[in-house]
Request: fold
Amino acid sequence: MINSNYKVISGWNEIRKKSTKLIQPKNLAELKKTISNLNQNQIKFSLISGGCSYGEVFTSPNGITIDLNFLNKIIKLDMKNNFIEVESAVNFLKLNNYLLKKGFYIKSLPGTLSATIGGCINGNTHGKDSYLNGPFANNLISAKILNLNGKISKYKNNKKNNYSLNNPIGSLGLKNIIISAKIKIFKLKNSNLIINKKKFFSYEELIQTFQNNKKKTDMMGAWIDHFDIHGRGVIHLGKFSNIKNKNEYKQLKIKKNYEKILRIFIYPILRLLLNKIIIKFINKFYFFVHKKDKITEQSFFETFYPLIDFIPNDKLIYKNGKVCIQIILSTRDIVKNLKRINNLCRKYDFQSWWCGMKMHKKYKGNFAFAENGFDITIQFPFSYSKKKNFNAFLSKIYDFTQKKGGKVYLVQDNFLSNKIFKKMYPEYKKFKKEKNKVDKYNLLENYLYKRLIK
Ligand SMILES: Cc1cc2nc3c(=O)[nH]c(=O)nc-3n(C[C@H](O)[C@H](O)[C@H](O)COP(=O)(O)OP(=O)(O)OC[C@H]3O[C@@H](n4cnc5c(N)ncnc54)[C@H](O)[C@@H]3O)c2cc1C
Reply:
């Protein structure tokens, strides 16, 4: 018997919860058998691995999901040819610990250690180096794919194959199952980075700083105080240290006891206290305690996962879920457009509680978010969606983004309308045709597919 149990599942935003039969195959034979059963009976299902997507890409409207977490082995490290071959549910905690110890790393990492290789290929995620290295797709050399007909094929990642039927990049869990992947790795002299933490006082200054440093850095990420009309905040400009590391690399362990203390004693109080006035004050305070310019040496984990010790799980803060809208706008008129977004948020009183910003470079491919431009994330508690003007706010933000040629990041989204989606991602027609060829009964299905693509 193949293991299964019933569980309430939702995206990381915890907005749409669904009681789901979670099927947990233990090996490839069980996975193939599961697929064959679902296929024969034409039962719709979704796929989950790390479960870190904020939106609706792994939740199944039919309440049936296959958990791919048995695919968790590192298969081969080739330090001569600079690649690693791993099963698709290997996550970045395991992978970073394994690779950094040997003096290597992977580019374009998302901000969570629980995300997996399979999830990041399907979501085509990006990191704080997106302006340099593009999204996760650029790491992929090839992948072993299980198709719904039970056959295994190989996908070779090159421009020629961009629209090949078994291309899993950006396919949002809707075409096939990645069993394993060969991923590029890069040599490091030192896993520490020299970080320049710079305060800025306006959107103009922020954009100028990003532009001036794109050739001098290995990563950049900014935090903006969204309650401030001018767009003040702090930007981190990082470069890997060139000094050969003499110290043994220390493994990162998520401190479970620490998390337990936070969960039992701190978060319940935080949840009671946190409201917009306090958050506004925290944003202000965070800005004022920062020195104008500070240069420090930081570890890889402190740089790419800065809040891991304090907020190992942001679900615990936003008790009833959160709204998370991540949008990208092109470089043209960016300052003007950021101010317009800020004004819209102020007008409707939905400023972002914690607003991050990254710079990107364009990637062409299915549902690609990355453009030559900048993204920001607007996030606040889902309980605010009860406010009368919430829907009007959403439609203004989405409309504005689309009219300026921008996009909404699909793996994070819960609210985009079908009409605007089709204008933002016109490739959906081509994708549907491809999907119909590899999944003619549309068995692979998630809430995002139902809302936007179908
Ligand atoms: C704290 C936090 C920070 C984040 N920071 C970033 C960031 O900086 N940048 C960014 O881009 N994203 C970020 N994300 C989002 C996250 O990285 C992406 O949603 C990523 O796709 C999640 O990977 P996962 O392994 O958890 O996949 P899941 O969420 O489980 O699944 C994602 C999609 O991939 C499909 N899928 C998963 N595995 C397979 C497989 N083996 N074969 C076929 N389909 C599969 C699923 O069906 C689903 O459609 C963040 C998320 C969190 C919680």
